Amino acid sequence: MAAGGALEPFWDLYAVHKEAGILKMLEHYRIGNYKDIGRHLEKDRSDPFANDPERHPALKPASEKPFNAETPLEILSDSFVTPNSLFFVRNHLPVPIVDGKSYKLGIVVPGKKQVELSLDDLKKRFKKHTIVATLQCAGNRRTEMAKVKTVKGLMWGIGAISNAEWGGVWLRDLLMYAGMDESDAQTAHIQFEGFDKDPTGSTYGASVPVDIAMNPYRDVLVAYEMNGTEIPIDHGYPVRVIVPGVVGARNVKWLSRIIVSHEESQSHWQQNDYKGFSPSVDWRNVDFSKAKSIQDYPLQSAICSPKDGDQLEAGTDEITVKGYAWSGGGRGIIRVDISIDDGQTWLTADLEQIPQKVNHAWAWTLWKVDVPLPENFKGKVDIICKAVDESYGAQPDTVRGIWNLRGLLNNAWHHVNVEVSEE
Questions:
Q1: Widest CA span of the chain, in angstroms?
Q2: How many whole angstroms separate alpha carbon 51 and alpha carbon 43?
């Protein structure tokens, strides 16, 4: 799994190996200490992506420039908290280099002087809070939609999702500090701008309704830590916004400004992307101005193990099936069902969850179930999963009815096809 790269994330994940006997055995094979000197070629400074950071080779790229990559499926189902280096990466533009020592976060409130806060200010002047929250790209599972009809976008599998513990300051606290008046009826949206820019100088931007941003029960965080360490460059160093339960595109990285406004962000990604449409809408008749921006993510689940196309040994009488489930808006998962007979009968999976309050379930659920096969079974097996959240929301059974031209929000029943070999 390390694929020639760093072993540390896997060593940390499978910590059962961290015991004296194993370490003593490994010491026998030590031949020296590797020093990573002079390995990298000189970067092309004319390349706008030249300053992008090194990435773990086990990540599964969906594109190189900008870099986008999925978390390996083995990690998704085996680690409740995704290691930083293996957290899925979603970049729309070249990664900016932001100096944490000189960093300033601007907060713009109409009628007030702009407030500027350093990274040190955020850490020392405001109470720190932590949440465990899952982020998922709106295009996760797009490849399945593309099988129905052509869509535009990165061809994500099921790995554009990850889970982490985030530390930082409540967005609400910062807005109140900057002088925001909650009773101002003109305020409808909170906009976020990043330091990442396109060739014209336009920055990545997004916004969320004020009712999400200022709701003390929505736990919106201006984060400076990820899994107990500073946020890695790819994930927004030094500061990003975490809007739990909301589609990943609104969780702006490399946060430069927060703007209190009467209108949504006017950025391309808020106005002309990340919106849903009827299956009958195509690129000839689409009108982004008439569609609502995606905010809370719908109910989702997927099978991580076994993988689609896996060949199982002859004589296999049981399949261990593992995966994840998550629902936006803080709706916790109450059940995951698995079928191998086209939905005629279902098994209920065992759930791995952390304690979360009702309507505060920002973290995903991992699940596992042992599925028995008929005696002496040989041939193909279509494994299906679906989840149920605490609002008793259900996933659609097919992709066709939710197909859309951008391939967003595919949350249909997930299928994995495997085959038990002949003798």
A1: 77
A2: 8
